[in-house]
Amino acid sequence: MKVLTRRDFLKISGSTAAGLTVSQLGFDLTPVKAYAAELTDFRIKDAKETTTVCPYCSVGCGQIVHTVKGKFVNIEGDPDQPTSEGTFCAKGASVFELVTNPNRLTKVMYRAPYGTKWQVKSWDWALNEIAKRIKKSRDTSFAEHNAKGQVVNRCSGIAAIGSAHINNEEGWLYQKFLRSLGLVYIEHEARL
Amino acid sequence: MTNNWRDIGVSDCVFICGSNTAENHPIAFKWILRAKDKGAKIISVDPRFTRTSARADIFAPMRAGTDIAFLSGMIKYILDNDIIQKDYVVNYTNAAFIVGPKYDFKDGLFSGYNPDKRSYDKSLWAFEKDDKGIPKKDPTLQNERCVYQLLKKHYSRYDLDAVSSVTGTPKEDLVRVYEAYGATGKPDKVGTMLYAMGWTQHTVGTQNIRAASMIQLLLGNVGLAGGGVNALRGESNVQGITDQALLYHIIPGYIPNLRASDETVAKYNEKTPKTTDPMSVNWWGNRPKYLASFLKSMYGDSAVKDNDLAYGWLPKLDDTQNASWMFMFDEMLKGNFSGFICLGMNPACSSPNANKARESLARLDWIVAMDLFESETTNFWMGPGIDATKVKTEVFLLPAASHIEKEGSLSDSGRMAQWRNKATEPLGESKADGQIVHELYMKVKALYVKEGGKFPDPILKLKWDYAKDGKMDFHAAAKEINGYFLEDITEHPVDKKAYKKGTLVPSFVYLLADGRTSCGNWLYSGSYTEAGNMMARRDRSDTTGINLFPKWAWCWPVNRRVLYNRASVDLKGNPWDPKRAVIKWEIGADGKGKWVGDVPDGPAPPMGLEGGKLPFIMKPDGVGSLFGPGLAEGPFPEHYEPLECPIDKNPMSSQRINPTVALFQEYVHTTCDPRYPFVATTYRVTEHWQTGLMTRYQSSLIETEPQMFVELSEELAALRGIRNGGRVRVSSPRGQVEAVAVVTKRFKPLRVAGQTIHQIGLPWCYGWLVPKDGGESANLLTPTIGDANTVIPEYKAFLANIEKLPEETPARKGR
User: Fold this and answer.
1) Are B722 and B802 in contact (CB under 8 A)?
2) d(Cα B623, Cα B148) in Å, to the nearest integer?
3) Most buried by CB count within 10 Å: which residue of A45, B98, B387, B708?
4) Do the interacting molecules here have an ipTM over 0.90?
5) pLDDT tens, B637-693?
6) B659: Cβ contacts below 8 Å, ≥ 6 apart
7) Which residues in chain B touch residue A105, judged by CB atoms under 8 angstroms apart?
8) Could A99 and B321 be called an inter-chain contact, meaning their C-beta atoms sit closer than 8 Å?
9) E-state strands within B207-338
């Protein structure tokens, strides 16, 4: 009897191709196909598939995101990804609830000194204010020389951390930005 | 990982210590089970019987923090029974090297120790060299000062009685493990060692991993399919972000960060690793090319010969400065930072001694945080016991996009960089972290243009041309990381071919030290070339038989899937185990030899043939280090007790703790303190991730793992009158947490140095913010102390007390 892998199963059950017989698979898939077709019709019919990678641990499991008119409607394991072969753990399976979570931050928030509440702010206001803070902290703490008189050109008044769950390109740009400011206190999760 | 996730599936023996793979890397665990299905032995060594242990052939319990003793016993077993892979050991390691006469070891200390500086003069551990500067060798391994003999002498002390007395592991369990794993010393048998934070988060973390590496070298298991030393990393892109150097001590590609004495590029390059051995490739000898190309990627046309490629614009650390995590928070507590940028992290729960981190945040003038959710860090000013009206810190909380709302690459634990495609627009007003960084940079730059300021050149002249109409183009950034030819090159020194200005370099082999190439990170050179985005490849074809899947995405370096693979073949280039060849030297029809299989560690022939090179190309001596004179605490791993231990004396020597760890001031000494009698350790659960910030908001996950708990043995529960499901308080000198008691057979008391030791374990995925009454972070308990080399905190072994709470006490938050 042919061993039916999950990958085969996903491909077969997701297809509408006729002609799969009991003898080919060793058992009758008709009810499964009917169920799969029902799901397809209701959930991801006409959905666009986009591949991505799970945001949790470092196994790198493949994910297929289904969107309809730009709206996130479903996520499944990517059967082609050679490590995960279409499977998820409990965390990977929670990504729909992660991304669509009502608690997600959707606006810039600001907490004033000695404040007791968050205030909603605009991006433009926040970025301008942050830039001013960065410049002030940098200009007041910048040292061209250390105690021994050696050239160091560093900003010792700002520390920065993060992050092991941003993409490589983002991380590279972030270190570039931080080092252009002169920061040396730069760390992330790898130290923990 | 030296190897990759799928590679575990072809191993003969999987040794798992310091990792609970089944629960923390559940999807990868199937590769372990596939190996088991094919007859591999699975070994789990852990203070607790985990779900990994449940699927293992052999489980050995141990006391947290005694891994070196456990592994040292294995080294002795391998040497005593002479089951090393001898050809491998003699030719591919420094076993035959002669160590100089100043090296010595007595009562826990190597020669050259300075107790005031808590450091060693490592020059005393140098090899004896011949007149060409090449280490002297005795391939017969008989010389009493050769590494092999010193190794034998050093580990002779770790007999079964001594090891069992330190680790608490019953002797028969030690023998079962040593025997099963030692069997992989045969050339056609391969074992893999898997570890995670259970090895790194100790005051001797680096030496834990060195001990494992030594075993793998002795058994000839490094470089082979189904072998290697494999760190199972915990975060989706912690490998990639380490590569990109969001760390104080390196710049991208593991190039050491600049120090004050490195005044110029030339001065910096004086430290380039060197060799005089013509057989050694010494790949790090190429470092000047990578530094120059990095500077060009930073400063573009502004990095010119006349300004030393703008080298002076990069910040420099003082020569001995340590700016790592715990030192950073020390400085923060002293009020030495006014600003703090916190991208996607939650130090209020993840820092050791988390109360200290929370206190430190209040000393800042401002915090900029980027995240998906509010966290215990962003909201620290409304945390337990804090009066917000007395906290000066301004907090800017910027909404970040999720992983499906942006594109870019991330590198899995096996160094494989896969491309994420963008599926939807960011939710609400959230933005990709990289987009936020871009916009912040543009605002800061505009301010310096308008107002001037301190040393503005590094900001004003930064090469930053990755956005179109204000939107970050991550492909442009990926190409910058890969690197470009910056000038027309008519005859490249590597292949005599011509390359056009503005084209992408094919790989780091083409980088130059004279400013004619750029490259953001040499390790990623080859990931995005003129042939396209290699990281986005989705070709599943694989005929290797060892699950390499060489055309799926892309792996650093140069798509090599198994590191040190030159050690997988004998001196003539034939695989030690032909059934699972990684590479093989084949003679073609033209009579010329070439490598087939995985991308080899360099094109040179195998070391036994003409023009052949030594296998470990990243090491100046070209071989694996059984004797490692580079680490802080000495060339051989030695057992030292965790900073907080339940016995007053190290059974192996008079040095109780690692003599080279930095001691932080506020540390409260609790060794053998009767108030804190139990060994505590921390871990994760499948349903939560790290501090839980990306899992505590999901109802499905909170339903399965709703609240803080502590696991303890039935014996300890009886001793303390604690019932399963009852509420308890766990405390250390630094803080306390309340938890539900999980009384379990998974923990058993151990006999250590003649006394009974109890261990308890806590997850660290909770925090006061969410869910309501879910409990607090276990890191309120953990000590401020770290590894002597990396300063990774010792989360995995400390002392604590556990006491029953009155039944009616409602769940309260810790503090």
Assistant:
1) yes
2) 14
3) B708
4) yes
5) 999 999 999 999 999 999 999 999 998 876 666 678 889 999 999 999 999 999 999
6) B108, B109, B113, B115, B118, B633, B640
7) 371-374, 397-400, 428, 430
8) no
9) 229-231, 250-251, 255-256
